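Example 3.
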Amino acid sequence: MPPMTLLQTIAMGLIQIVAVLIVVFIMVPLLTFAERKVIGYAQVRLGATRTAGGRKGFTASLNRGMWAMGKVPVLSFFRGLPVFVADAVKLITKEDIIPAKADRAVFTLAPILSVVAAFGVFSAIAYYPGVMFYMPKSWPLIGGLPFNGAIADVNVGLLFILGLASVGVYGIVLGAWASNSKYPLLGGLRSAAQIVSYEVPLTLSLLPAVILAGTLNFKDMSVILSTGQGMSPLAVIPLFIGFFIYTTCGFAETNRVPFDLPEAETELVAGFHTEYSGMKFGFFYLAEYANMIVVSCLATAFFFGGYYLLPFGLQRIIPASVPFLGHPSFLFFMAKVSLLLFVFIWVRATLPRYRYDQLMDVGWKYLIPLSLVNLFIAAVIRYAF
Amino acid sequence: MFKSEELEINLGPQHPSTHGVLRVKLRLDGETVVSCTPVIGYLHRGLEKICENKTYFQGQVWTDRMDYVAAISNNLGWVEGVEKLFGIETPRRARYIRTMLTEMNRIASHLLWLATHALDIGAMTVFLYAFREREFLLDLFEAFCGARLTTTAFRIGGLREDLPPGFVKQARAFQAIFPERLEEYETLLSENRIWKKRTVGVARITAEDCIALGVTGPVLRAAGVPYDIRKAFPSAAYAEMDFEIPTRPEADTYARYLVRLAEMRQSHRIIQQCLDGLPEGPVMAKIPKILKSEVNEVYHAIEAPKGELGYYFVGEKGGVNPYRMHVRAPSFVNLQALPKMIEGRLLADVIAAIGTLDVVLGEIDR
């Protein structure tokens, strides 16, 4: 195949960016919908589990055929789906209030920073190793060009992702500070301390994976770690421990229960976004859910088997000759991401919230030593076996 | 160049976890509470003065609006106080039904406490589970007297009506499901590490301090003092009931949680005894249409879900309404313990402490 011209590169890049953005923008509302449903079932919420929409009006139009036949719609499980459309409309049309004494520029910048950092990370994530499909030959300009599994195959992808993800905290801290209000200030302080503390074990928990894989490229790491090529079978141990440390820190990074202190609603009203409304609040909201997806993607790629069926380097049990199960698949990746997202929601329905000092205890006294030990184990396994 | 300042912050009156319109003025050093002053009065309606201008029959309606999650307890205190003032004997069946409903109300009130307390600490699921059972009880109240919260359940001299048909069956249905539902809450909380971290050793107050401040109810019992008015000065049919007073020695938030759960079990036991031993007979004593008092005074206390609820009546000669009426509201007295519990601790503990005191602002401000 001849090398791509500049125009073709730009065109393919744009197509991939748009495709990923569309997927993410669909996934985030779906995630809020899933959260409503899962929590609804976990907590016996009558509204979320039974609201069907009437036999008349907009919601019924989706199910009208079934109603007409005198049946409860097949779509009944998805009833309540229009709620996320309503959510989006509400967020966009609501009055956007900036407090009189707020720092207007920073106040506006903060949610943008948050959302850009969260969405930027998606550019370096590989959803499939290699080429997913080729564009149809008949299309002008881009006909026959490959559609890659990642927008940008960065050779230090992991560094890029970690760096960009930690920019997101500036959004929270600046937003809290710019609000010029006391509750957001407390939320911002908590957030700064929390994210600084949890970045350390988060990064340390990924290092064993880097050591074992011997590369920082997202796609290569994922493939090596899940197929276990060139790795000792003992590598399962550090990967397994690393997975739990990483997921725990992931909860803290995304401000989810039990680490949702920056926005602890019963203590700080709404924490850092107390003064935000309208789409500015919507951006923080989007960023939180996008971050959940990012954390799930990373956990899946590095620890949970990535594009292959079995996690923790166990894929070697299944030879590559087995159809479907032996091969990498985009479906496996998304299924695992969905499973982890479900865990996020499940935990929210189960656990109470840590106190500020206890949160610090968990981070500094348990997670960091544990991840250092894990790093040591990984290093020993890499060079001794 | 650098200087540190204490941050003064108003927790409430509009705040999600101050349970109404409590305002707590906090001075914070970072997140540590330096001083704490509860400010009350946002819900003051002059209830005691109003009751002085109402007849003894009319006054009871106003007691519903004090502790609105335990209106039946308030009613019980009022009607028994007035009965004591006039020396009225109530029929045994009426006393049994009163006991049963009051205990149901105690469970409903404790469930609301559990729900909101758990929500404050972040355990959202318990909130909805507890409301599910409370709904069952409120349906029972509605069947009995037509109202769910502001019940005005009893009449001076007994009850207005006997139990409606089907009530006993429904109550037994509740009795059958409730123990396992309690265990469901316990599986979510009792051994939950985060829950224990947030509650064990938090908002501690010693028995001496409790007695000095006049704190009663589960807070006192969780400090190891087995003081329960149902045992100490039994009224209604409590003298005939077999139940225990749960106490704990630790005096912290977790102990109060355990004590209240144990109290729900004891209430469940009392309701069972009331249902099994419900005597036949009339539910209303013969009383005059108009109650005219002598010069007389009476203090009558009952064990409300929050603690000692006392009614103080002074009658004047020939008066149809009390000359003076005062309510000793448990939430009001218990709230005094808040600064002692939380000064020097963290902001998150303030929320736990307000939750564990189980205050209802309608009762504090009256």
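The mean pLDDT of chain B is 87. DSSP finds 15 helices and six strands in chain B.
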